[in-house]
């Protein structure tokens, strides 16, 4: 798998990324502990049972990170100079242990770099979708990419 260069994208390009990931208890636990997030909804089964969800809720920042990670191989692997920002991040549905997620990406904007003629900015709309076809995370990512040749 390899990413595309700036000049290989067009607005409206859409990808469904082949890699899927079933979220495990260990994924959620390690990510939550590693990022020092003490939220009981992510760590405490008994507290989570008492919540409106009735079970452990997967850490949203894990879901976001997984969504972007699932897209990298097809979008920016080997062509990225830097991620410039993530905008309009939403999580319309919860993610639970055992959910299987895949990601989609669409190019929603392209812009030549004004200061770096060998690069351009691609804005992607990324979505993470669960096994029920529900969008669980969405954001726009602006990436500074190298041009081909």
Automatic annotation (TrEMBL):
Transmembrane parts of this sequence: none
InterPro entries in the record: HotDog_dom_sf, MaoC-like_dom, MCH/BMMD
Pfam families assigned to the protein according to its UniProt record, in alphabetical order: MaoC_dehydratas (PF01575)
First and last residue of the signal peptide: none
Domain MaoC-like residue range list: 10-121
Annotated protein name in UniProt: MaoC family dehydratase
Tree of life domain: Bacteria
SUPFAM superfamilies: Thioesterase/thiol ester dehydrase-isomerase
């Amino acid at each position: 798998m390899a990413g595309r260069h700036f000049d290989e994208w067009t607005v409206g390009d859409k990808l469904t990324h082949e890699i899927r990931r079933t979220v495990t208890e260990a994924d959620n636990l390690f990510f939550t502990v590693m990022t020092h997030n003490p939220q009981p909804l992510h760590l405490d089964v008994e507290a989570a049972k008492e919540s409106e969800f009735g079970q452990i809720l997967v850490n949203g920042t894990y879901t976001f990170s997984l969504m972007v990670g699932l897209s990298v191989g097809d979008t920016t692997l080997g062509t990225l100079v830097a991620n410039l920002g993530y905008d309009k991040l939403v999580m319309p549905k919860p993610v639970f242990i055992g959910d299987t997620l895949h990601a989609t990406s669409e190019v929603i904007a392209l812009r030549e770099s004004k200061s770096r003629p060998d690069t351009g900015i691609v804005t992607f709309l990324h979505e993470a979708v669960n096994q029920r076809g529900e969008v669980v995370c969405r954001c726009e990512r602006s990436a500074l990419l190298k041009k081909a040749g």
